[in-house]
Amino acid sequence: MRLLVVEDDRDLNRQLCLALEQAGYAVDRALDGEEGHFLGETEPYDAVILDMGLPKKDGLSVLKAWRKSGRTMPVLILTARDQWSDKVEGFDAGADDYVSKPFHLEEVLARLRALLRRTAGHATDEFICGPLILDARTSRVFVDGQLIKLTSHEYRLLSYLMHHMDRIVSRTELVEHLYDQDFDRDSNTIEVFVGRLRKKLGIDLIETIRGLGYVIRASEQKPSPPQATERSD
Amino acid sequence: MVVSWLMRQSLAFRLFISAAFWSSAILLVAAVILTTLYVHDSEVAFDRRLNIYARALIADVASSDETGHNEIGQLGDPLFLIPFSGWYWQITRVDGTAEDLRSSRSLSASKLPKLADLGISGEVGGLSSGYFTGPDKRHLRMVEQTIDTGDHGVYLVQVAGNAEELNADVHLFELRLGVAFFLLVSALVGSVAVQLRFALRPLRVLQDGVAMIRQGQAETIEGIRSPDLAPLAAELNLLLLSNRDIIERGRTQVGNLAHALKTPLSVVFNEVRADASPLARKIEEQATVMKMQVDLYLERARAVTRANMFGASAHVKPALDALIRTFSKIYPAKRFALATHVATDLCFRGEKQDLDEILGNLLDNAGKWASRQVNIRVESEPVNAVTGRRFFLIHIDDDGVGLTPQQCLEATKRGRRLDETVPGSGLGLSIVVELAAAYGGALTLGRNASGGLRATVRLPVF
């Protein structure tokens, strides 16, 4: 999952990005409205965290511009203006949820998970496929109740496929959503990650569709309950 | 005292009184002058008639002595023959030799007094005139002249006429003049009243315009086209605009301050969150106090700007529609439905931000606690016969577990959160209570038919 954080306060921006990266997301950052607007227009983000009070171009204008040009990614707005009239304005401009400042990072993470879940059409933070459980709240993966240690890139790849279950995801799309903009991208590494994932999970959930990409198909099979151990990066 | 009483009266009344006073005074002076002139002219005409008789008598006196006849006093007017008719003549020899007195038959045995004896001095030429009370107790006017016939003696010729005829004429004139002038004064005063009504209409329009702004029915003064008052109305409008501008700037500054403080507070919270040291705990505690202070003073600043705001109104239907759109996104699993038709012209008498705040907090609360459905109903109250004000009610029903009457009372207290596990500041419902009260309305909490909470807010109609 690849996210964009648009926040002009450097410290808050850093805190948000760190927390999101620790939660297993690929994160791009922007410090003003113009840069944020440009990135949102050109990169395929899974969600955006957008501050309303930004230099150069305010958050509301950025959001309106994205929606006008057809960008549909979920947007979580951060606002110090906590009156309902301000929030209504934000929602009418195309926001999907809001967090009032001052906030705790946990609140932002929870709202963001809910947004991504809603976009994927899921009711809970747990994505289940046969014996596999991906807990988006804790960024942990279980197979038959056993915790599987994954690197952050492996987790991102699995998480993206789980969020888009039953849809064939191309390698290019995976590259765009797994790495932030500063990362040196190479689509061949995707094959390597898929190979490693199949090996670590021990089950062949990830199906290769030749010439198109990969897909995880939903399964009716109930998994056994997870046992708590830490995910390694 | 009269002046101070007048100073307290309206401009129109003062103008009216002053116009009535001066036109009456001027007409009164005119009436006095006209009457005086009329009396004078009437007397001159009366005297001229008496003089004609006097001259005839003088001619008689002179000729009778020459011819030896005694045909004096044949004036041909029967009034001189009727006793006590009010018309008399009398010729008296006054050279002292012998009292030779002749008089008209109408005088009977009475005598006419001399004007000199009555204290009326003679005029140049020996002719004098004056009033006196005659033998018949009538008010008479008399002319008298002394003639010297040389050897035949000196005579005093007197002719008196009934002055009551003269007085009756004067009185009739005075009556007519009085009636005419009274009608004139009435017409003048009436026209002044009509003119004042007409001339002062722009002032009334101005007054109505200011009243409408005060009552919140208008934002600017409209309809003043009089060149005298249009600049005043324009100045007042500019004053209102600048007032609104100052308030708007105040609000913006308050918002900026909030933004400026809340971002660093977020940073502080998140920095110390991961740190378990006593210092970090202290900083977190103080940052929490700062956050509460920011919220408190923001709310106070909003209340101050609200108190200075007048003439504001907000449409209820679009506000509700926008909030329902918003909450459908915030609580996607719950359905927010407007259960009644809301008249598109229903307006809240107050700031749109405050209406949003009241409804936003109530809907947020309902959204938090509803299991699936939130119903919103809008109801208009009839006009209050005493105050002339009208209110509307918004009922917000959720299908949650509801509150007991005791919990309903507790829920509206500042900072009170009945369930600490659900996010919130606990300020929502107390803000609604304070805002509704500021507009003369109220919030009531109760139970609806499905057992969930019913929040009813009563707000003034614009």
Keywords, please?
heterodimer, A: 233 residues, alpha/beta, 5-stranded parallel sheet, 8 helices, B: alpha+beta, Heat Shock Protein 90, 5-stranded antiparallel sheet, 10 helices
Q: Could you characterize the architecture of this molecule?
A:
The complex is a heterodimer of chains A (233) and B (462). Chain A has 233 residues and is α/β, with parallel strands linked by helices. Chain A is built from 8 helices and 11 strands. In chain A, helix 3 links the parallel strand 3 and strand 4 (75-79). In chain A, helix 2 (33-42) runs parallel beside helix 3 and helix 6 (152-163) packs across helix 8. The longest helix of chain A has 16 residues, at 105-120. Chain A is globular. By secondary structure, chain B is α+β, with helices and mostly antiparallel strands. Chain B has a domain at 314-460: Heat Shock Protein 90 (2-Layer Sandwich). Chain B has helices at 2-7, 11-67, 163-199, 201-214, 230-273, 278-307, 316-330, 352-369, 405-411, 428-438; strands at residues 88-93, 101-103, 127-133, 139-148, 154-162, 314-315, 335-338, 347-348, 373-380, 391-398, 442-447, 453-460. In chain B, the strands form 3 sheets. In chain B, strands 2-1-5-4-3 form a 5-stranded antiparallel beta sheet. In chain B, strands 7-9-10-12-11 form a 5-stranded mixed beta sheet. In chain B, strands 6-8 form a two-stranded antiparallel ribbon. In chain B, strand 1 (88-93) and strand 2 form a beta hairpin. The two termini of chain B are 44 Å apart. The mean pLDDT of chain B is 82. Chains A and B meet through helix 1, helix 4, strand 5 and helix 5 of A and helix 5, helix 7 and helix 8 of B.
